Amino acid sequence: MSVTDESRLRFAVDLARRAGELGLGFFREIDKLTIESKGHQDLVSNGDREVELFVRAELAKHFPDDGIVGEEHASVTGTSGYVWVIDPIDGTANFVRGIPAWAVAIACVKDGRTVVGVVHEPSTHETFFARVGGGAFLNERSIKVSSAKSLGEGSVGVGFNNRTEASNCVKVVSRIIDDGGVFFRNASGALMLSYVAAGRLIGYTEEHMNAWDCLAAMLVIEEAGGVVEPFNRKDVIADGTVAIAAGPGVFDRIRELSAEAYGL
What we know:
globular, 2 domains, alpha+beta, 7-stranded mixed β-sheet, 8 helices, single chain
């Protein structure tokens, strides 16, 4: 166990929860939010920006030598080899419409490997977290991925974004259904991936995800005994990656259907 990684994990859990409380303040007064569109169903609010500034300030104060990469503000280069990758509010489309399905995602990467991951859902007070080699947890309770052996045994999370062809998402949904499965979407990739870690979803697929949306939860899935498709971009923090993850009993099938739909 690395004491440094453990201290970062505990700090990140506490920080995600505090950031979630700040986000809830904006969520409870959504009629006062300033909302902008960055693309097809890709929204940002002043709540996103304020929560990210808070997270950045806390990280800079406690880990001044670490780098920081976030969705809404410019990157900060560090000297320690650690980089924090953060999404202040994943699921903004839900957040700005009063739907309680959004999360704060915080990952810490060391030399290209995610070593700490935290996803906190303020509306339900659920915190999914892990560090390398330490297991996966939901509010201090150990969690494991689903033991499903076929797609007919549960639901598969499906993500969509404006960076890929919409028809490919339709293809993967069709293939899941044809294989006896059901698809699930709640407009927060970090949450859906976390649900895979907790065994609520048997798997997840999305043609492309930004690093701040997926790195934290992907580590939680791996520590919960799941399988995650290796990154398909050389610089995942800058370029994102395909996201395919599942319990070991269905990963190969979800990967196969995803490859057919996305042309991998």
